[in-house]
UniProtKB/TrEMBL annotation:
Residues 1-90 form the Chorismate mutase domain. It comes from the Bacteria. Its main location: cytoplasm. This is T-protein. Residues 99-362 form the Prephenate/arogenate dehydrogenase domain. SMART domains: CM_2. Pathway: Metabolic intermediate biosynthesis; prephenate biosynthesis; prephenate from chorismate: step 1/1; Amino-acid biosynthesis; L-tyrosine biosynthesis; (4-hydroxyphenyl)pyruvate from prephenate (NAD(+) route): step 1/1. Keywords: Amino-acid biosynthesis, Aromatic amino acid biosynthesis, Cytoplasm, Isomerase, NAD, Oxidoreductase, Tyrosine biosynthesis.
Amino acid sequence: MAHQLADLRDKIDAVDKQMIDLLAQRLSLVEEVGEVKSEHGLPIYAPDREAAMLASRRAEAESRGVPAQLIEDILRRTMRESYASEKDSGFKCLKPNLGKVVVVGGKGQLGGLFVRMFELSGYQVDILGRQQWENAEEIVKDAGLVVVTVPIDKTLDVIRTLPPLPDNCILCDLTSIKDQPLKAMLDVHQGPVVGLHPMFGPDVPSLAKQVIVHCEGRKADEYAWLLDQFTIWGASLCAMPAKKHDEGMTLIQALRHFTSFAYGSHLSQENPEIETLLQLSSPIYRLELAMVGRLFGQDPNLYGDIILSSPENLSMIKRFHQRFGEAVNLLEGESAKHNFVEHFEQVSDWFGDYSKQFMQESQTLLKQANDAVHRG
């Protein structure tokens, strides 16, 4: 038996080495694809091409007796690496005569990411920070684009103290709230203005499939090329009014971050052994614990700024607190289970078909999370 297993494992090792060789070939071809896309200004992410390719490979896999989901998982992971490789090839510059791109706060993590992306696209980039502020007027005098990316609590003050910009200069910000910064930019600059919110962190390997929300300010035709540049980088664009964006972010960011903060605070005071919780956790609970723990591995000032960025956030948190109490009340009395089930079904009706969609999406995530766990 030991000899048979050793022989089979040797054959598996040989196949694995062939897979590595093939992946190396694929990544090399991707580099060539990236060069062609860069030359012709094509986006690194082509959703139609990706969907068609995956459908074709799934069909081919099934015809060979290989689970279709297996080949899709392999290809999606490979494509994620491919998008990162394509980024290193650089990007076509859509506005070569733009003038300087000035990134206010370009030494920060998100600002640094956009500095790199503009430089990869061939733009001349300058950084305006606190140390350079006394020379701000000189730095922006020939700017074609000024990007404000500073902490939320400083954004309005920085926008209001910007020196006069060239008339045709585009002014934009990358803040996670949009209504007030957009109004401030429209007040201080009469040229093109757009509010932007990158829905990702600075640690993304590439911008492929990452969402950038844009809120119209003024002279959209003059900053349309900038949105096209984001598309070339691989980003997906989402147009939205500033107020509607902020209302959504109250639930997506502020409330979620606060509930993670509250749960983490509760855990710390209950003081369980985290290792024991991990041993007892199925993939979904491990993911939930990881998302809470992830919050506390980052800058508390960032999350404090997000949660406290508007009075609406606090009002929403207070309403959640009230409904949390109402949910607790469902668990009391002789009709507790009946009341719980009835309310559960009401909420389920509200989610509608999205419940099935979220179930399918989460199952994929949970399989990946389980694959990554090593249990000795």
